[in-house]
Write a structure and sequence with these properties.
Elements lengths: L1 H10 L4 H18 L9 H27 L4 H5 L1
Helix pairs in contact: 1-2, 1-3, 2-3
């Protein structure tokens, strides 16, 4: 989930740290207010998931920007 949230924030002109903070906040909200009824949030849910999601989301956003800046190619046409 945080990977998509990071990309969403970046697409709305957020900086990388704003996007990471947004993803972490939304992930924490999800863990405590949605899934908490079923299971207790773990360390992995609260730390690893938002950090990994922010990193993967930023990589995804950077790749998207590189494709937009590059010349037309087979990969750009395919995506």
């Amino acid at each position: 989930m945080p990977r998509g949230l990071t990309t969403l924030a970046r697409n709305r002109d957020g900086t990388w740290w704003q996007a990471a903070l947004y993803a972490a906040a939304m992930s924490t909200f999800w863990e405590y207010f949605t899934e908490a009824y079923y299971e207790r949030p773990s360390q992995q849910d609260l730390v690893v998931t938002p950090v990994a999601g922010a990193l993967l989301g930023e990589l995804r956003w950077q790749a998207k920007q590189a494709l937009r800046r590059g010349s037309p190619s087979t990969w750009r046409t395919a995506l």
